[in-house]
Design goal:
Layout: E1 6-7, H1 15-25, H2 34-47, E2 51-55, H3 58-68, E3 76-79, H4 86-93, E4 97-100, H5 112-120, E5 127-131, H6 142-152, E6 155-159, E7 167-169, E8 175-177, E9 186-190, E10 203-207, H7 210-220, E11 224-225, H8 235-238, E12 254-255, H9 266-276, H10 279-297, E13 304-305, E14 318-321, H11 325-334, E15 337-338, H12 350-353, H13 363-371, E16 372-375, H14 383-397
Parallel strand pairs: 1-15, 3-4, 3-5, 5-6, 6-9
Antiparallel strand pairs: 2-10, 7-8, 9-10, 11-12, 13-14, 14-16
């Protein structure tokens, strides 16, 4: 019998994590210090991108990506309805229009055939971009999405919040890490406590595009730049109308666009660096837990979903589909197993219904939602706890 509560996900904080945060708190910088750059460089190396920009959370990351790509009033952007609302909301923050496209029921990912049909049914130029989501940790095949996007002049933001350490295999049989930006213009990650890398809150944007990188740096900090090669005011003005001046003074900066305060703190970055060092260990444990679930549910007629081995899956979530989802959810909670539902389809949220979205628009997503439930999966889940979860799921479903 397990007495303590078992959540669907949770952070793993070690003594080393605590030590590095204390050291950061005792340092000269709590924010805008050296740990930010150190974290950015380490994360870029981990995923294989050229640049990384640390921000305050995953939602901020999405918002800045939309701003950097100049999403504006009336721009139409395609995304999946099975995701956290932020994947769509970032478009609305900029005045754009969210166009949902249905999922592939076998993978739960944005269905490229449905996206292609959507694009083919409208004149070129109708849509501006696509935001695919590596839902549950399963990597989107961005190579095929890139080819489609290039045909229609679209940009791609990869929402990889669920998938640091995940990958897909491209047409050359090479593994492409989530967030390496080889096919997406920008990719984003979250460091919320239930994610693979926890900073309390926090996010990261990765890209291989220097122009976008420099825009993100300014947008993250109020639209302010201290890069004098891009200054527009004169040296004379900067120095207080001193005509003898030949260089900009050390204090000078320029706000050149309307940005935000979306910065990450140094102590969060220190925690992120420490967590990143255990990232592969954590993802290995997640894959092991998933494999145990796969075996436990393999021969059951009443469980379907992401069973079987999926190469490159980062297993942020382990999702199954069952007929009596509400009954199972309540039964698990009675036994202190706090499974969760991911996600209510975005297009049926009251906010998005006002734009005309309704039941029946996304049949695959809606069918998935009726039966989906996410079981506990996180690196510190013990074998005993997982077996307890499995036993309770089977007890209920076996009647």
């Amino acid at each position: 019998m397990i007495d303590k509560a078992i959540p669907y996900g949770r952070q793993n904080i070690t003594q080393e994590d605590i030590n590095v945060v204390i050291a950061a708190l005792q340092s000269d910088y709590l924010t805008q210090g050296p740990k930010i750059i150190e974290f950015e460089k380490a994360f870029a190396e981990y995923v294989g991108s050229t640049y990384a920009v640390a921000v305050s959370n995953g939602t901020a990351a999405l918002h800045l990506c939309a701003l950097a790509l100049d999403v504006s009033e009336g721009d139409k952007v395609i995304t999946t309805p099975i995701t956290f609302a932020a994947s769509a909301n970032c478009v609305r923050y900029c005045g754009g229009e969210v166009i949902f496209s249905d999922i592939d029921p076998a993978t739960y990912l944005l269905d490229i055939d449905k996206v292609r049909a959507l694009l083919e049914s409208s004149p070129k130029g109708t849509y501006k971009g696509i935001i695919p989501v590596d839902f549950a940790g399963r990597a989107v095949d961005l190579e095929v999405f890139r080819k489609l996007a290039d045909q229609y002049g679209l940009w791609i933001i990869e929402d990889a919040c669920h998938a640091p350490g995940g990958y897909f295999t491209d047409s050359k049989k090479e593994n492409q890490n989530c967030g390496n930006s080889n096919f997406a213009d920008l990719a984003i990650f979250s460091f919320h406590p239930v994610k693979h890398i926890a900073c309390g809150e926090g996010g990261m944007i990765t890209t291989n595009d220097q122009v976008l990188y420099e825009k993100l740096l300014a947008l993250r900090t109020h639209g302010i730049t201290k890069n004098e090669t891009g200054y527009t005011n004169s040296i004379t003005f900067a120095n207080g109308n001193d005509d003898q001046s030949t260089s900009y003074p050390g204090w000078y900066m320029e706000m050149q666009t309307l940005g935000f305060n979306y910065r990450l703190t140094d102590f969060q970055a220190a925690l992120g660096i420490s967590q990143l060092q255990r990232a592969e260990q954590g993802i290995g444990k997640r894959r092991k837990i998933a494999s145990v679930y796969n075996v436990a549910f393999k021969n059951t007629s009443f469980v379907k979903g992401q069973s079987g081995v999926v190469p490159g899956h980062a297993y942020h979530l382990y999702v199954i589909e069952v007929e009596d989802r509400l009954g199972l959810y309540n039964y698990l909670r009675e036994n202190k197993i706090f499974a969760q539902i991911h996600y209510i389809p975005c297009h049926l949220m009251p906010y998005y219904r006002q734009f005309g979205w309704k039941e029946g628009d996304m049949p695959n997503a809606e069918s998935y939602y009726k039966n989906c439930i996410s079981l506990p999966i996180y690196p510190t889940l013990t074998e005993e706890e997982q077996q307890f979860v499995i036993d309770k799921v089977l007890d209920f479903l076996n009647g």
